[in-house]
Design brief:
The protein is α+β, with helices and mostly antiparallel strands and about 575 residues long. About 20% of the residues lie in helices and about 35% in strands.
Amino acid sequence: MEPETEKMETISKSKEDMASLYEHTMRELSPGEIVTGVVVSIGEGGVMVDVGGKVEGVVPLSEFGEDGSAELPAVGDELEVYVKGLSMGGEEGIYLSHREAKRRKVWGTLKESYQNGVPIKGMIKERIKGGFKVDIGIPAFLPLSQASDRTSFNPDSLVGKEFEMKIIDLNERNHNVILSRRVLLEEERKRKEDEFWNNIHEGDIVEGTVKTITNYGAFVSLGGFDGLLHAVDMSWKRVKHPSSVVSKGDKIKVKVLSLDREKKRVSLGMKQLTEDPWERVEEKYPEGSRVKGVVTGISDYGVFVELEDGVEGLIHISELSWGRRPKPPAQMFKEGDEVECVVYKIEKDDRRISLSLKRLAPDPWENIHEKYPEGSIVEAKVLRVFQDRAILEIEEGVEAILKIDDLSWVRKPRHTGEMVKEGENVRVKVLSIPEERRRLKVGLKQVVPDPWLEFLDEYKEGDSVTGRISSITDFGAFLQIKEGVEGLIHISQLDDRKVESPRDVVKEGEEVTAKILKIDRENRRISLSLKEQKKVEEQKEANSFMETQGDSLLKLGELLGKVMKKG
């Protein structure tokens, strides 16, 4: 046989063998299948893949990136491909697609996950309108509302991170996959919450993390549920603000105080992990003992003093001083001051301790009769002045009242302030000690002698007195006998004749002498008479005249007597 003829027969046989091989392969492969092949070469025409029996197909380079350079496999790598179509001759061969194989395999997994409610992992690639673009093997959409179980969060903080999510909607025809991270978070939270309530009991001591701080306390995450740690349960001492005790993120141990399973509420306590200082308060601070503490609060009604952590007492304003009106607490103390005081009352059940500052010194009223006996002269400071009285302080805790009637023997002031001023010191006499009022009764005028008593010692009814006319009225004139002592000369006693006006007889400032007709000791009144005084003076003149005539008048009387007898 000629060589050329032999060559042609060989080629013909080779074609027949190839056709036979393709025919065998085509019977094993069918469009729509996903098979695994081996990469045998990579060229400009694409990636050549051996899908079995030395049958090769081509995957376009475009499926590995637009320029054919991204994610290219290496020769010898296994590659899953999708059989798009078969050709029995020519150069078309088998049409393969790696991208479609990958997509169909992913969709198969997604369908199974969707139907069974199984979570899948996805990488959040970027923020887009209304949510996020997520890579789960194919592009998927995560709505913003499904990204977190919190109403407030930073969306940008999720980008670039991988999370487990659930498929909540799947549409293969439109290639749409909608995901939810929130569903899984809520399910996990519910699982932890159920686990928490199944295992928690009152009295348990648990560890938690401070989640948020409010004005009234702190919420503590207990690994499944949040409990409230109220400010009053943070410390035995008074808490001004929860942030002074705990900070956000702190890991703390707390005691479960109460559980409300119906309303899902947990009350926690931190101070209950230590001994209550009030348990031994009566033993540590017995009534009557002197103690030291620190001023922690000041109000209009008193001062709060901390004796130790959790034990605080009150010095009421009435216990600041023995005085009836102590200074305002804010003028006496400031927060942080150390103060010594006396424990005078403990109410353990109400967790109250009454403290006293004034009881550091004896009550000045205990020996008031010895210190300031009635009739003693004392020096006092004028505290307050009213119209009809003044309040004086003799010493701290000892006050006195000075009434307007006890200001002067002489003057009759309309207002107490006419004679005493606030802040000045005066000498007064103790008149009485009313126990119930805890306030001495004193007098200013009583410090000097009473001119009325001096008058009574010096004069009696019928005596003549000399003084100056101090004032004139329609019914008479007043004669000032001495400082603080006046008498009235009634109009009927000014002269023998009828007097129309007292001013016709006397003038103000004129010095006159009058006879004392009557002394009214009870009402301190003196009745005087110029008319009777005139008679007294006339009698004195007559007596004086008789004394100067001597024997002549006697002889004349004898002669007249003889004549009368003869007759």
